[in-house]
Amino acid sequence: MDKRQRKIQEGISATGTSKFVANLEKRKQRFEDGLVSSHHSSRNDTPTPDANDGPVVGTCQKLEKNYFRLTSAPRRETVRPLSILEQTLELLKTKWKQENNYSYICDQFKSLRQDLTVQHIKNEFTVSVYEIHARIALEKGDL
Predict the structure, then answer these.
(1) I need a surface site. Which of 5, 76, 102, 129 has the fewest CB within 10 A?
(2) Segment Disordered: which positions (predicted)?
């Protein structure tokens, strides 16, 4: 029996009805409702971004920027262009050596990688960003 089946079984035996299964059904229904409403929406004011629309070319000039999970297409003014991202990496390397603040560095690297991703930047710089972040994680024992 796998973990999920065991949880379902434990939920049923402990309470007589499974709260886990009920929550699972609610999530399933919300997901299905979301699919139906997004595909059959009559609203045309916010078109759904297509992954094939091409990269967003950033204009943001901030070196440091907190990571936020994207829930819609990013705006150009919130994405940093490659030249700024290169400066950001140098700043992050310096800050890591000076401050050794792992949660801050992780947040900044996630933001940096997100800006690379939305602009479809895949080059040697991108590789170095991922390698440096991985080295820092290994240094802190974060596997």
Answers:
(1) 5
(2) 31-55
42-89 confidence digits (pLDDT tens): 444 444 445 456 789 999 999 999 999 999 999 999 999 999 999 999
Asked if residue 137 has pLDDT above 90, the reply is yes
Is the pTM above the cut of 0.70?
no
> CB neighbours (10 Å) of residue 10?
12
| Cα angle value 126/129/130 (rounded, 5°) | 90
Distances (CA, A) of 74 to 8, 16, 90: 39, 47, 24
3-state secondary structure (DSSP) of residue 45: coil
Say which residues have a Cβ less than 8 Å from residue 74's Cβ, sequence separation at least 6.
56, 118
The CA distance from 16 to 110, in Å, is 44
